[in-house]
Predict the 3D structure of the following.
Amino acid sequence: MKAHNRPSSANLHYHREVNANYRLFGMIIFVLTTCGAALYVFSSSISQTGLERSVGWRAFLIFIVGVVQFLIGKSNLTDRWKPHVMSSVFLLIPFIYYPYIDNGAQTVWAASLLFVLTSLVVINRTMLLYATGISVLSLLYVWLKAPTGISTFSLTDHIARIGLILIATLISLLIHRQYVTHLERNIDYLTRLKEQAFFDPVTELANRSFFVIETEKKAVTGDIICLIDLDDFKTVNDAFGYRTGDRTLHVIGKRLMTRFSDCIVAKASGSAFLLHATSTPPHQLCDEILASISERVQIDFKQINVTASIGVSFVNGESIDHVINDAEIALFTAKSNRKNTFAITDQVTQNERKRAMQLTRDLYDADLDRDFFVLFQPQLSAATHRITGAEALVRWNHPKYGLISPLEFIPLAERTRFIETLGGWVMRKACRQGQQWLEQGRKPITIAVNVSPWQLRQEDFTEKVLEILRTTGFPPYLLEIEMTEHIFIEGTVQIIKTLNELHLHGIRIALDDFGTGFSSMQTLVELPFDQLKIPKEIVRAAIDSEEKRAIVETIIQLGSRLKMTIVAEGIEAMVEAELLTGLGCQTLQGYLFHKPLEALSIEPLLELEA
């Protein structure tokens, strides 16, 4: 961040507070003078002499004084001149009452007291002392210039007035001292908090939080965000110590801020920096940054060579946080390719992220019964090719984008925990459809429903499943809970407990995508799996690879020994079906036989096999 844009010190906060007080003071004086002028005209109009022309002029002048005070309070006049101008203008009010006889003396005294007390709002020592001096001189002038024999006030009266002004000033000065001390302490405390919240103590640059705030204010579409990370900076800390490493970061941060004074520069985290630039070709900017950082750093006669990698992204209407995330993706690419280089996030990547954000928001607004529907893909016996079951597959018909692939929206649903709601809805729809087929007298088939680790972690998941079975009437032994091997990465004791509870109630348990690398033989023995599903990637590879074919054969033999059913997914060619049948696979599933179908399209198939 540019040095002259850096938020400043307690002095700046103090002057802001004082300027606010000046504005308040001007408003108070404006209200008082307006009311005073109105009362002056009213009292004169009901007096014996009536409303004279001079009274109207005096009232108008008093009102003008209030307006001028209000404008001065709002003006950008410096603190050096503002108290003098405001004091002088306000104390013009008594001189409007010429000649200075009894009423004039009363007015000077009242106005002076009012001004001194009102000055407490501003808490300005110069104004207090200046107002006191003018007030005392005005009272002395009235005292000495009043015509002899006309004034009804004695020497004691004049001294008392001057004494009251001085006492009021003394009290105001004591209050001023206490207030200013308290104000400065508070402002100093708030300033330190702001420094800690928005600035990095090592480099003295703004941190990521302040960078995001400032860039949100200034950035326009097409601006560049650079995430700069020093390569292998840990070796600098290990070789020279953390103190030298911190000083190196400070030098590089200062160098970036100096070389790119038109940009906002900030410390991100660790050894990373952020930079926001406008109207600069990204390749040229990155070359200049890399050249600047690669210049040798000298600290205590130590020569330190540092390089950096840069991730570049563009402001495109999304939040700056998401633009920085895009830069992180590009930075990872730069470090993966080779260090001391840069990578630019292409528009395709940013559009994908933007679409993912939009879909995530739309998930929360989606109506399950309106926007989602369930298809069923039949599972066939390898020996007879008759339907033995069906896998329930959810689909999202987005009102704007149309059909969204499950590969796209399921990860979003899991990330946002929306999968818990969606998964329960799918299970209820599948069980209701399975029961409807039974009531129509069709052949009983197993209905497989996919569940996520988030669902299995719920302590009441078993109760929710049993409640769905009770309300739909679907038999537990025809329901199959299907999960992927990811439960072994994210698994907990609760997941194992839930699977055992479901199995005790007669519900079948299937392990999907078996052989992708997360499960173990011990897990297969300990958990109550009834079925293993071989993924289509392994099935396809087994056609041309003896090693993959041996893996498929081993899985099938393992499942047979453990009394598990083996299902092969993704069968698209007859050669795949023949190979798996020959190896002993019991059930086949894939486009060779049936695509995912609506319930009405499956019913004729069930009638043929009844």
Notes: The chain is about 60% helix and 15% strand. Confidence is low (pLDDT under 50) at residues 1-10, 98-104.
